[in-house]
């Protein structure tokens, strides 16, 4: 299943979606569904999820790290905790993390510079036209049951 979307039903209404690196979850109620995280964007998760459900989809990020949010740009709206709203500037904590990891890796493995286009694709979240909607503690998303 490495670099290929696969799914496994965890229980009624809950499907784990994976690309071999990270997992996302589709939680379906009677009226709507939640896609929890959008993954690394190796593949178009929106197209994949459309094959799994025809219900109105609400997208939620657990947090704004690339392995959880890189597929966000495929969606019009994404809900995320208010303290993790992205700014797409270096103020976003994950940009510090990414910068530090890349710098340390290139210092130790200079030949890895050839892989930078792939690394950029995997770790740099695209802004797109996505609207980010803040979630506060106690907010609920009604799926119909």
Structural class label: alpha/beta
**Overall radius of gyration:** 16 Å
Can you tell me the CATH topology of the domain at 6-86 and 126-135?
Metallo-beta-lactamase, Chain A
- For the secondary structure, the number of strands is 7
Q: Kindly estimate the percentage of residues that lie in beta strands according to DSSP.
A: 25-35%
The number of distinct helices, counting runs of at least 4 residues, comes to 4
Using the 3D structure, state the CATH architecture of the domain at 6-86 and 126-135: 4-Layer Sandwich
Mean pLDDT metric: 87
Straight-line N-to-C gap: 32 Å
Largest beta sheet, briefly? 7 strands, mixed
CATH class descriptor of the domain at 6-86 and 126-135: Alpha Beta
CATH homology-level superfamily of the domain at 6-86 and 126-135? Ribonuclease Z/Hydroxyacylglutathione hydrolase-like
How would you spell out the order of helices and strands?
A: EEEEHEHEHHE
Q: Outline, from the CA principal axes?
A: globular
Low-confidence blocks of residues: none
* Fraction of residues in helix: 10-25%
Strands ordered across the widest β-sheet: 1-2-3-4-5-6-7
Please give a structural write-up.
The chain has a domain at 6-86 and 126-135: Metallo-beta-lactamase, Chain A (4-Layer Sandwich). It is 25% helix and 26% strand. The protein is built from 4 helices and 7 strands, in the order ββββαβαβααβ. The protein has a 7-stranded mixed beta sheet with strand order 1-2-3-4-5-6-7, with no helix packed on it. Strand 1 and strand 2 form a beta hairpin. The relative contact order is 0.17.
């Amino acid at each position: 299943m490495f670099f290929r979307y696969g799914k496994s039903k965890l229980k009624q209404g809950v499907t784990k979606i994976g690309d071999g690196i990270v997992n996302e979850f589709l939680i379906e109620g009677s009226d709507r569904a939640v896609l929890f995280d959008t993954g690394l964007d190796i593949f178009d998760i929106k197209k994949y999820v459309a094959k799994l459900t025809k219900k109105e989809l609400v997208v939620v990020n657990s947090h704004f790290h690339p392995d959880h949010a890189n597929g966000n740009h495929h969606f019009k709206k994404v809900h995320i905790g208010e303290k993790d709203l992205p700014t797409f500037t270096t103020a976003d904590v994950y940009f510090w993390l990414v910068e530090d990891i890349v710098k340390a890796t290139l210092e130790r493995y200079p030949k890895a510079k050839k892989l930078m286009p792939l690394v950029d694709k995997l770790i740099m979240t695209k802004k797109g036209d996505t609207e980010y909607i803040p979630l506060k503690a106690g907010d609920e998303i009604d799926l119909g049951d």
